[in-house]
Amino acid sequence: MTVQPIRLFGDPVLRTAADEVTDFDKELRTLVADLAETMLAAPGSGLAAPQIGVGLRVFTYHIDDAQSGHLINPVLHFPSDEEQDGPEGCLSIPGLSWDCTRKANVVAHGQNMFGDPLTIEGAAILARCIQHETDHLDGVLFVDRLDAQTRKAAMKQIREASWAGLTPPTVKISPHATRGLAL
């Protein structure tokens, strides 16, 4: 397990839809462990693979020491149209949060790191976290879900943040055959 650097707002990987996981191997289990370690070190309630520069449909979550885990290839269903409004932040937009409307309840279907089917039912904060992290896998940031006036104020705060404009890390593709072990 290794704590990985978290990509910040403006990094193109955060706006790119992640690929479905098809190989449930040791590499994937290492990714899940790295995500969990990085999320807890940050600290955060959730972390998606694109936030550490990996374009796969994987996220981890940790809510108040009561609920934690991971989900791979999530598909969300909403049992009702009931909504919740409340503060939301993001490890890729550090130190800032705004009220964001989300569905109050969610049922997420996917797989665990071994490829076994997994269903997570969430309400309140867990529902918000699952929706937020699944958005990351689709290249959507929570600021995209804010009303126009709040989004405008959020973008101003982001531009003024001390971390704004920091150069994202350069990713180099290996010219050698990697047999699926790296980019």
Can you lay out the helices and strands and say which pair or pack?
Layout: H1 26-41, E1 46-48, E2 58-63, E3 67-77, E4 83-90, E5 93-103, E6 105-111, E7 117-123, H2 124-137, H3 148-160
Antiparallel strand pairs: 1-2, 2-3, 3-6, 4-5, 6-7
Characteristic key phrases:
183 residues; alpha+beta; Peptide Deformylase; two-stranded antiparallel ribbon; protein biosynthesis
Structure description:
The chain is of the alpha+beta class and 183 residues long. The chain has a single domain, classed as Peptide deformylase (Peptide Deformylase). The protein is 23% helix and 29% strand. A hairpin with a 3-residue loop joins β2 (58-63) and β3 (67-77). The longest helix is centred in the N-terminal third of the chain and has 16 residues, at 26-41. Its cofactor is Fe(2+).
Summarize this structure briefly.
With 183 residues, the protein is an alpha+beta fold. It has 3 helices and 7 strands.
Can you list the strand order of the major beta sheet?
1-2-3-6-7
Largest sheet: 5 strands, antiparallel
From the 3D structure, determine the CATH topology: Peptide Deformylase
Q: Between the first and last Cα atoms, what is the distance in angstroms? A: 19 Å
As for the number of domains, it is 1
**Whole-number average pLDDT?**
90
Which shape, going by the Cα principal axes? globular
What share of residues are in beta strands? 25-35%
Secondary-structure element sequence?
HEEEEEEEHH
Low-confidence region ranges: 169-174
Helix/strand structural class: alpha+beta
Protein name: Peptide deformylase
GO molecular function, one term: peptide deformylase activity
EC number: 3.5.1.88
Function: Removes the formyl group from the N-terminal Met of newly synthesized proteins. Requires at least a dipeptide for an efficient rate of reaction. N-terminal L-methionine is a prerequisite for activity but the enzyme has broad specificity at other positions.
